[in-house]
């Protein structure tokens, strides 16, 4: 059958007019590729003398492969053929279709835009545009699979090159810029922001952080697009892509800025509506009371703001998918940022839902890959470490190999995810009408295979060195302290003398409690702004005198056994603890009384018997700086929900308390380098406690001090080899 089709093809070629063969290099209509793996035949009526295109069709006949795709700007992929000795022309003049009587799968051609067939289409009888399901099937089943086969190694070389570039230049520059901005607005850490001005500055910082992040993502995607449009030596392709990316850095930055600003402006209305609803329904309630008690006002707020939020997110998603193809329009077609946005809007018009399904599906698959790798290692590979002999040397060697292989596997999964995203965007761009001819790079250097393998081996060496350093720098004999959060608050009512006694009995090294200022200037131990949560009393602490507070029962809400428990002053709490544990006093100022609260607290600390066993803490960086300036001899701590690397200065505080969900090995390394203690708060899961102990934090704040002490003691009973294995297990369980 193949030989018969081959004869038909040769007969068709020989029947061409003589001038068609003479003008074989002419560039005319576009290739309309067959979508079938069945043998195809070429019709001379569509030929204008392009032997390279005939070669493509003949290869499709003999080897059952698709000819070059018209969506690649009419050029297909540059690949030499034995027929012509030339690369595919920019636009070949051949129409190929299968023998099957079924309607051939619809395709896109360069003469078609968004489903509209323009004049000059080579075959008006074909449908110009597939339906949405054919679009999804073509992108996933054909385009991306083909691109992965043809560009995987060059993209790997580019990924490694960009990873080095991002590590050396992009990431440090971005982090330094954002850290400098935080210090300029005097908010070095994400603790709490005072007033409207602080909130606005926080939103501006978040917008800039989003712009920087999107810019880095755009740089990586631009390089992938350039690699996929090139041919030649893979290392040369990667180097050329890096140069091309740097040349386009300015337009890409402008494009990222336009997108972030547009999203910020789009978010402004629904954020204002949400703020107004919050002030109207929840403004008079203590935030902690709202979170813990969930009053009816919270549900009214969610009911009112939920539709507004859903509509806002839908608008953001629509805008994102409308501009999804702006980066390839800028990179592949050389358009300006605004023109690229307009081009993407035109290409995606009317197809946002199908594109969203495709992009979200691929994104979920990409996000699942690293998680699956970690899960497989935790369940399948980690138990194998129990077979290692009880030898520190062998365990160290095994951990180095284990961490290296794991890091390489995770990086491979991330590479595949990044590649899939870039190829998806490129395939959509070309399928929907984008054009870009192939480009060639310089000739390969001497022994290119050795050069590329050396570059990839260098990355493996770096991974091994990092794994070895991670094992060598583990502080196996660290003894972190345990802080009881508001006392043993699961055993007794929080911030009461009973809770403090339970924490001391559990073996806690420190007790954290909150203080506020009463109407008569007394420093009282209490967390909330009012008594609504613990006593059902809506009166605020700052509006009540100490004598009136003594009448409020703050124990019955927890358990009837603690009925009659009363509020304590700071002086009474310090006298009760009496040096048996460190007192970590968190300042909770109300509007306008921060300085008064600080002065009164410092006076009480000075009158105590153990002032060296007291540490002041706050979520407000301004209040921490004021405490350090007013009493340099008193230890201070700053609590924060998040910290950008490099933003924490040693002179500001003695201890940094980080939300444990934001804590990682980088935060621990930064604390060691800058010389302050690091606390993880608030951790009640024993598995997480073990992980943070293994990371090397200096303190763990918990509502379960007895459990934390038990986990610490269990770790202390292990030898070095067992502790290394325990650290590895907890690292993979994160």
TrEMBL record:
Keyword DNA-binding: no
TM annotation in the entry: 156-184, 196-217, 252-279, 299-321, 355-377, 397-430, 451-472
Residues forming coiled coils: none
GO BP term, pick one: lipid metabolic process
InterPro entries associated with the record: GP_PDE_dom, PLC-like_Pdiesterase_TIM-brl
Superkingdom assignment: Bacteria
Keywords on record: Membrane, Transmembrane, Transmembrane helix
Record-annotated GP-PDE domain positions: 480-712
Single GO term (MF): phosphoric diester hydrolase activity
Keyword check for Phosphoprotein: no
Name of the molecule in the record: Glycerophosphodiester phosphodiesterase
Taxonomic source organism: Luteimonas chenhongjianii
């Amino acid at each position: 059958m193949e030989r018969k089709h081959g004869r038909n093809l040769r007969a068709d070629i020989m029947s061409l007019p003589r001038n068609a063969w003479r003008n074989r290099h002419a560039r005319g209509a576009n290739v309309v590729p067959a979508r079938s793996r069945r043998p195809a035949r070429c019709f001379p009526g569509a030929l204008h003398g392009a032997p390279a295109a005939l070669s493509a069709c003949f290869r499709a006949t003999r080897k059952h492969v698709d000819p070059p795709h018209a969506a690649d700007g009419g050029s297909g992929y540059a690949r030499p053929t034995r027929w012509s000795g030339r690369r595919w022309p920019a636009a070949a003049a051949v129409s190929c279709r299968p023998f099957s009587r079924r309607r051939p799968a619809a395709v896109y051609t360069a003469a078609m835009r968004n489903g509209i067939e323009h004049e000059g289409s080579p075959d008006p009888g074909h449908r110009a545009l597939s339906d949405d399901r054919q679009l999804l099937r073509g992108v996933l089943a054909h385009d991306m699979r083909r691109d992965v086969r043809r560009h995987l190694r060059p993209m790997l070389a580019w990924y490694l090159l960009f990873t080095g570039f991002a590590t050396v230049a992009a990431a440090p520059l971005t982090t330094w810029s954002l850290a400098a901005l935080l210090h300029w607005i005097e908010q070095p850490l994400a603790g709490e922001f005072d007033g409207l001005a602080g909130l606005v500055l926080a939103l501006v910082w978040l917008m800039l952080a989003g712009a920087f992040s999107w810019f880095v993502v755009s740089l990586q995607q631009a390089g992938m697009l350039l690699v996929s449009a090139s041919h030649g030596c893979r290392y040369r392709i990667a180097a050329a892509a890096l140069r091309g990316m740097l040349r386009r850095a300015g337009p890409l930055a402008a494009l990222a800025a336009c997108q972030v600003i547009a999203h910020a402006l789009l978010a402004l209305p629904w954020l204002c509506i949400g703020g107004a609803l919050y002030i109207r329904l929840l403004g008079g309630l203590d935030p902690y009371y709202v979170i813990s008690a969930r009053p009816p006002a919270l549900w009214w707020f969610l009911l009112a703001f939920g539709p507004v939020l859903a509509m806002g997110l839908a608008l953001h998603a629509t805008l994102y998918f409308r501009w999804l193809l702006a980066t390839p329009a800028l990179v592949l077609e050389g358009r300006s940022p605004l023109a690229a946005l307009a081009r993407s809007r035109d290409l995606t018009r009317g197809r946002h839902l199908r594109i969203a399904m495709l992009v979200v599906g691929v994104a979920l698959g990409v996000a699942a890959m690293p998680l699956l790798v970690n899960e497989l290692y935790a369940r399948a590979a980690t138990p194998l470490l129990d077979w290692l002999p009880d030898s520190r040397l062998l365990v160290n060697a095994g951990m180095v190999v284990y961490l290296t292989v794991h890091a390489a596997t995770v990086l491979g999964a991330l590479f595949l995810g990044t590649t899939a995203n870039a190829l998806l965007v490129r395939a959509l761009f070309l399928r929907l009408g984008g054009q870009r001819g192939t480009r060639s790079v310089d000739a390969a250097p001497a022994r290119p295979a050795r050069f590329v393998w050396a570059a990839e081996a260098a990355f493996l060496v770096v991974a091994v060195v990092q794994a070895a350093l991670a094992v060598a720098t583990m502080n196996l004999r660290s003894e972190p302290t345990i802080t009881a959060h508001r006392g043993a608050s699961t055993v007794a009512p929080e911030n009461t003398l009973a809770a403090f006694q339970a924490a001391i009995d559990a073996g806690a090294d420190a007790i954290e409690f909150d203080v506020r200022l009463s109407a008569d200037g007394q420093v009282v131990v209490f967390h909330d702004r009012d008594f609504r949560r613990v006593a059902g009393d809506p009166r605020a602490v700052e509006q009540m005198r100490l004598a009136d507070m003594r009448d409020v029962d703050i124990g019955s809400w927890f358990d009837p056994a603690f009925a009659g428990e009363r509020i304590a002053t700071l002086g009474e709490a310090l006298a009760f603890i009496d040096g048996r544990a460190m007192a970590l006093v968190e300042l909770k100022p109300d509007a306008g009384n921060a300085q008064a609260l600080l002065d009164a607290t410092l006076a009480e600390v000075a009158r105590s018997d153990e002032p060296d066993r007291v540490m002041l803490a706050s979520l407000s960086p301004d209040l921490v700086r004021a405490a350090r300036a007013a009493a340099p001899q008193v230890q201070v701590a700053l609590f924060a929900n998040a910290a950008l690397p490099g933003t924490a200065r040693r002179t500001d505080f003695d201890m940094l308390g980080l939300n444990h969900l934001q804590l990682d090995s980088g935060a621990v390394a930064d604390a060691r380098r800058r010389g302050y203690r690091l606390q993880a708060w608030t951790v009640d899961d024993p598995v997480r406690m073990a992980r943070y102990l293994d990371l090397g934090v200096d303190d763990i704040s918990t509502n379960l001090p007895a459990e934390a002490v038990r986990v610490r003691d269990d770790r202390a009973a292990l030898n070095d080899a067992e502790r290394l294995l325990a650290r590895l297990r907890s690292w993979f369980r994160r």
